Amino acid sequence: MSGTGSDARRRPRHDLRRSARVRDGVPRSRLTVYLTPEERALLEARSVSSGEAMAKILVDSALHPVAVEGVGGAGELVAQLRDYRRQLVGVATNLNQIARHANTVSEIPSGFDAVVAKVLRLHDDIDDILAGVRR
Fold first, then answer.
1. Could you tell me the residue ranges of all domains in the chain?
2. Least packed by Cβ within 10 Å: which of 22, 44, 83, 101?
3. In what residue span(s) does the Bacterial mobilisation domain sit (predicted)?
């Protein structure tokens, strides 16, 4: 048989990318979700960065609430993240000024070490906040 008849379409696919329809003896069903191109791009980016499947991210987000430890609540967490974003904007501006100076005179200014140290501190602070967020 050439594989173009109706029998070829009925054969089960053994595609390793697909999740099992039965896992641990529990049947699973399919749900279709429609996303805008922007939503899909954000979901794909999160999938790539976390190494998790897009479906798993959606299911976990919908069914498992986020608990925040070590922070006074979601409002305080949002305020902290806004503050860090503001600081990162300032650091990015400083880095841009340093790059402009370095390209103009072919030397790195003396304040460069301080900017790098601030970037590292902000990075560590953001990591600490994210470590406090548990599923």
1. 29-64, 65-135
2. 22
3. 86-126
